[in-house]
Amino acid sequence: MAQLSLKINGYAYTVGCVDGQEDHLRAMSAEVEDRMGRIKAMGGQSGEARMLVLAALLMADELHDMAAELADAQGKPRPAPGAPPPAPEIDPARLTALADQAESIAAAMERA
């Protein structure tokens, strides 16, 4: 398992990932950093945890919009407002890898 040091909002986080997924994880880190920058630009600097929650909410809103667009393109009903998008089928190996990443992030946050 690879270990990466990612910098988000000026803080370094060491995160583990499946070998070969380093570039993908760096790209996802850049996406979070982008949203953090947008929040700062709106004057939303009121604490690290709050900014991370706002970044997560921005990403969740984007996912919801994409799910609605996908439903339209497939001729399916749109998700109800406030309803989570339908859960995709998940490969068990991918789920295990995501769980490992989440545990690595939590451990890194505890150390920070």
Task: Kindly describe this structure.
This protein has 112 residues and is of the alpha+beta class. The protein has helices at residues 22-41, 48-74, 92-111; strands at 2-8, 11-17. A two-stranded antiparallel sheet has the order 1-2. It is globular, with a radius of gyration of 16 Å. The two termini are 21 Å apart.
Query: Could you say which structural class the secondary elements and strand pairing correspond to?
Result: alpha+beta
Question: What are the segments in which pLDDT stays under 50 over at least 5 consecutive residues?
Answer: none
Radius of gyration: 16 Å
Mean pLDDT: 82
How does the major sheet shape up?
2 strands, antiparallel
What's the total helix number? 3
The figure for the number of domains is 1
The total strand number stands at: 2
Strand content: 5-15%
List the helices and strands and how they pair.
Blueprint: E1 2-8, E2 11-17, H1 22-41, H2 48-74, H3 92-111
Antiparallel strand pairs: 1-2
Helix pairs in contact: 1-2
Short description:
It contains 3 helices and 2 strands; from the N terminus they run ββααα. It has 112 residues and is an alpha+beta fold.
Features:
112 residues; 60% helix; alpha+beta; 2 strands
